[in-house]
Amino acid sequence: MSTTAPLPPLDPQDIAGLNELLTEDEKAVADSVRRLCADRIDPYIGEWFERGEIPDIRGLAKELGELGVLGMHLEGYGCAGMSATQYGIACLELEATDSGLRSLVSVQGSLAMFAIWKWGSEEQKQQWLPRMAAGEAIGCFGLTEPDVGSDPASMRTRARRDGSDWVLDGRKMWITNGSVADVAVVWAQTDEGVRGFVVPTDTPGFSAPEIKHKLSLRASVTSELVLDGVRLPADAVLPEVTGLKGPLSCLNEARFGIVWGAVGAARSCLQAAQSYAAERTQFGKPISAFQLTQQKLVDMNLEYTKALLLAFHLGKRKDAGTLRPEQISLGKLNNVREALQICRTARTILGANGISLEYPVIRHMTNLESVLTYEGTSEMHTLILGQAMTGQSAFR
């Protein structure tokens, strides 16, 4: 049935009208996270990136805890118990500010907290989750090793029994939050298979030297974990899982947040390019009036719109309990790849200013080079999808 009612005005930054897909609760999450970022982080993030540090990261963690975004999709133990889609929207808004900020929240909630929440004992949950949800304790997740990335089954970190204790030896690499963490969830080979351990970072033999000289994710703490004869009591092991199912389940949680977060980085660059193109004048008119610039803006908007629609679809599937790991791979592969291309195209619109930290574009672009790799490289997600499509494994 046709109608003669006037159409609502068109938002040039939301051509498809995707904001209408959000419920009131989801809009409230977006608004609250965006407000915190605008007040607390956006004015300083370029400087933090340039300096390669987050001043008062513990204070920031507590503010994020007060906002309710740490472990926000988990139930109980001080967690907010929100929907997967609400969590995804929070990740989008966080990464629209910076990938390092979203990484802090993802590692805390979807890796460290989720591991304890899903596979831990009641005592482990009570000891750590309420403090982590409040931002009073920071967690990290030790899986990747210096010589082991995409093939975690080949990890060399080892846990052996010594009486009733466990003793851990090994190295982990590229660990977000490692140098500031109060607790590390560390995965190690045992005689029983891969097991997870809850390791207080003040345990003798544990150290976490910070990794310097990064040109990506500079507003994020990245560390090596060194375990030299780390002795733990018997109850430090995560009791409810043995094998790679444990760490891989956590990675799927984090990848889901990346599906959304990458869209936030893309939105930030798209908006920066739109604004700049309207203000930058060449040959007597704004560059937004030139056909080639408009083609770039339209192509960026198309890919951003499709990526956001995919994120919404996967969020609804996760909320319905029907989301498969292969579908998360589809979202991670597409959305990070397209977000990175949007950032690169935005850089060309800004010209020389595109490499200045006065604008967010080069920061997002270099950050996404890391996001493209962590939580599964593009190659690995391609092979996951290839196996799903053909029934043939090309991993080995």
Describe the protein in words:
This protein is of the alpha+beta class. The protein has three domains: 116 residues, Butyryl-Coa Dehydrogenase, subunit A, domain 1; 105 residues, Butyryl-CoA Dehydrogenase, subunit A, domain 2 (Beta Barrel); 145 residues, Up-down Bundle (Butyryl-CoA Dehydrogenase, subunit A, domain 3), CATH 1.20.140.10. It contains eleven helices and nine strands. The strands form three sheets. A four-stranded antiparallel sheet has the order 2-3-7-6, covered by helices on one side. The chain has a three-stranded mixed sheet with strand order 1-4-5. Helix 7 packs antiparallel against helix 8 and helix 7 packs parallel to helix 9. It is globular, with a radius of gyration of 22 Å. The model has no long low-confidence stretch (mean pLDDT 96).
Descriptive labels:
3-stranded mixed beta sheet; 50% helix; Butyryl-CoA Dehydrogenase, subunit A, domain 3; alpha+beta; 396 residues; 3 domains; Butyryl-CoA Dehydrogenase, subunit A, domain 2; Butyryl-Coa Dehydrogenase, subunit A, domain 1; 4-stranded antiparallel beta sheet; 11 helices
Short description:
The protein is α+β, with helices and mostly antiparallel strands and 396 residues long. The chain is 50% helix and 14% strand.
> For this structure, what is the CATH homologous superfamily of the largest domain?
Butyryl-CoA Dehydrogenase, subunit A, domain 3
Continuous helix count: 11
In round numbers, the mean pLDDT is: 96
Order of helices and strands: HHHHHHEEEEEEEHEEHHHH
- Percentage of residues assigned to helices: 40-55%
Number of domains: 3
Residue stretches low in confidence (pLDDT < 50, at least 5 long) are: none
Strand order of the largest sheet: 2-3-7-6
- Sheet with the most strands? 4 strands, antiparallel
